[in-house]
From TrEMBL:
Subunit structure of this chain's protein: Monomer.
Region span, Interaction with substrate tRNA: 34-37
Organism from which the protein derives: Secundilactobacillus silagei JCM 19001
Cofactor dependency: Mg(2+)
A Pfam family per the record: IPPT
InterPro entries membership: Dimethylallyltransferase (IPR039657), IPT (IPR018022), P-loop_NTPase (IPR027417)
Annotated substrate binding sites: T11, A12, V13, G14, K15, T16
Reactions catalysed: adenosine(37) in tRNA + dimethylallyl diphosphate = N(6)-dimethylallyladenosine(37) in tRNA + diphosphate
Protein name from the UniProt record: tRNA dimethylallyltransferase
Chain positions of site Interaction with substrate tRNA: T100, R125
Length: 307
């Protein structure tokens, strides 16, 4: 079984720096698990690692879509599996860094979501995305809530992709999304490193990260996306962009939009941490409060690779 190393955790806890260190030590090649970093031109709001910062370590699934294109979990799984095969064949260590918990779980485990024929589901997915465009995300979520309230209560109204995915699974299989995949078979021998620290410290670092993004030009980047039509696209649903669109329309103040970015980022971090603790086995470390666990991480990864 091929080995895959993953690094997850909320924003601003040191994932990028650790991934570079481990990649250099273990011949790693990095696959971005972030569904927003695939978009060309969305660099600041996605905290994208730029070529000059990559220390000659190969990075994949960055800048592979135009901002008006969709990118699904099906795309991520298919492209990541191909990359894992290629990297492993070269003797390298595939590393998944960052991203959503569902994307990582769908990759590491044999999650069929109604079958491996993801492409056959496009028609169903498009139907529900079109429904949301016409009737709104709340109406879309209400549809799921009627069919599968257990799934709906765990998916935010604004997470259109997850809502559509749950509706798609039910429509294709007749089985509720909340009842799917109670026992999953792993595709890979995976070692998942989770980075976290004290919640107050995480929130403080998130606020600082947003302020840093703004100083780097986030407003200008988001405005370009908005003026290009991003409000209607998947790329415009990302945190750091969607909150600024009402400001560009003069519906809210800039200060309110900025605070909303920070709030949404904090809420997202909390949801992700809760999700990971219940969905995937994770080895947790706090390298913010004490950098010495980095040595323990290296030792643990070495032992795992030697098995």
């Amino acid at each position: 079984m091929k080995k895959v190393l993953a690094i997850i955790g909320p924003t601003a806890v040191g994932k990028t720096a650790l991934s570079l260190e481990l990649a250099a030590k273990f011949q790693g090649e990095i696959i971005s698990g972030d569904s927003m970093q695939v978009y060309r031109g969305l660099d600041i709001g996605t905290a994208k690692i730029m070529p000059a910062e990559r220390q000659h370590i190969p990075h994949y699934l960055i800048d592979i879509r135009n901002i008006d294109e969709r990118y699904s979990v099906a795309d991520f799984v298919a492209e990541s599996r191909r990359l894992i095969d290629d990297i492993s064949a070269r003797g390298g260590l595939p590393m998944i860094v960052g991203g959503t918990g569902f994307y990582l779980k769908a990759l590491l485990y044999d999650m069929n979501l109604g079958g491996d024929h993801f492409e056959q589901s496009k028609q169903v997915r498009n139907k529900w995305h079109d429904y949301a465009t016409v009737h709104g995300q709340q109406a879309l979520w209400d549809q799921l809530n009627e069919i599968d309230p257990d799934a709906a209560c765990k998916i935010p109204v604004t997470n259109e992709r997850r809502v559509v995915r749950a509706l798609e699974v039910y429509e294709r299989t007749g089985t509720l999304f909340s009842k799917q995949q109670t026992t999953l078979q792993p595709r890979y021998d995976a070692y998942v490193i989770g980075l976290n620290t004290d919640r107050a410290k995480v929130y403080e670092r998130i606020n600082q990260r947003v302020d840093q993004m703004l100083s780097m030009g986030l407003l200008e980047e988001a405005r370009k996306l908005y003026e290009a039509g991003g409000e209607q696209w998947q790329s415009g649903k990302g945190i750091g962009y969607r909150e600024l669109f009402p400001y560009f329309k003069d519906d809210i103040s800039k200060a309110s939009a900025i605070e909303k970015i920070k709030q949404d980022t904090r809420h997202y971090a909390k949801r992700q941490l809760t999700w990971f603790r219940h969905q995937i086995p994770v080895h947790w470390y706090d390298i913010i409060a004490d950098p010495t666990p980095k040595e323990a991480i290296g030792t643990a990864v070495s032992a795992w690779l030697e098995k």
